[in-house]
Write a structure and sequence with these properties.
It is a single chain. The protein starts with a strand and ends with a helix. The relative contact order is 0.19. The protein is globular. A six-stranded mixed sheet has the order 6-7-8-3-9-10, with helices on both faces. The chain has a four-stranded antiparallel sheet with strand order 2-1-4-5, with helices on one face. By secondary structure, the protein is of the alpha/beta class. The protein has a single domain, classed as P-loop containing nucleotide triphosphate hydrolases (Rossmann fold, 3-Layer(aba) Sandwich), CATH 3.40.50. The longest helix has 16 residues. The structure holds adenosine-5'-triphosphate (ATP) and magnesium ion (MG).
């Protein structure tokens, strides 16, 4: 197993409050890695630092031998580390197809765009049938699908997701997790931040538990699901 992306000693502060306190994470190529934890644990802060939207105060994010903490967000996207934004951040006054096209802005190989669009429409048939409609008219779950589809149009090598199941109805939650697994089976490496600990660990090969800015547990998804501390704190056991 090779490490595709390695986070070492990453710390992030808001003013003098340190929200992420020196964490180590390894993303293996082709795996889903889950980062789980309660409200305010620092999950979003860690993701935002990996994608360059927040500045790290210490530590490194190594990808292809380059420390991403030294790069600007658009340079990180161009290297293939692409975040699906929390709260979706789709453009509601543009059509579905226009939103998907926005995902391609940083791509160097424009040649594969048509094939990737076909793939995204195959993953999310509802996006194909609504492609000329305004994104703002999609349901919450469909907007989440569009946000994921847009990130896929950037041809990511690592996909970062911040709580993709948040606020969705149970059936839609199931559907989103099923599709993430399907995307992963094409070989795409995924870092999945979730409060839905059970579902996230079920589809993840590897997981980390974050508490108040520190990693307190890590292991295979299954080992964490079976861990009494995880059961007690996160699975209502
Ligand atoms: N912009 C900000 N300014 C100051 N403090 C912040 C800011 N954003 C987050 N924090 C604080 O940093 C800590 C980590 O927040 P973060 O949003 O990363 O947690 P999280 O694990 O993503 O939580 P949630 O599950 O609620 O999304 C919290 O104590 C939070 O209050
Ligand atoms: Mg968060």
């Amino acid at each position: 197993m090779s490490a595709l992306l390695q986070v070492t000693g990453l710390a992030v502060s808001y003013g003098h409050i340190e929200a992420v306190k020196g964490i180590d994470l390894v993303l293996h190529a082709g795996e889903i890695t889950a980062l789980v934890g309660a409200n305010g644990a620092g999950k979003s802060t860690a993701l935002l630092a990996i994608s360059g939207l927040l500045k790290a105060s210490r530590g490194a994010v190594l990808f292809d031998g380059v420390d991403l903490t030294k790069l600007a967000p658009h340079q990180i996207v161009a290297r293939g580390v692409v975040q699906v934004a929390e709260g979706r951040a789709i453009l509601t006054t543009l059509t579905v197809a226009e939103n998907l096209a926005l995902g391609t802005y940083a791509r160097k190989d424009k040649s594969g765009v048509a094939a990737d669009l076909e793939w995204v429409y195959a993953l999310f048939p509802v996006l194909r049938s609504r492609r000329d409609g305004l994104a703002g008219n999609l349901s919450g779950g469909e907007q989440q699908m569009l946000a994921i589809g847009r990130a896929l149009m950037a041809k990511p090598r690592v996909l970062l997701l911040d709580e993709p199941s948040m606020g969705l109805a149970p059936l839609m939650v199931q559907e989103i997790f099923r599709i993430l697994k399907e995307i992963n089976l094409t070989g795409l490496t995924i870092l999945l931040v979730e409060q839905n600990v059970r579902q996230a660990l079920k589809i993840a090969q590897r997981g980390y538990v974050l508490e108040t800015g520190k990693i307190v547990l890590s292991g295979s998804g299954q080992d964490l699901l079976d861990d009494p501390k995880v059961v007690e704190a996160y699975l209502g056991g």
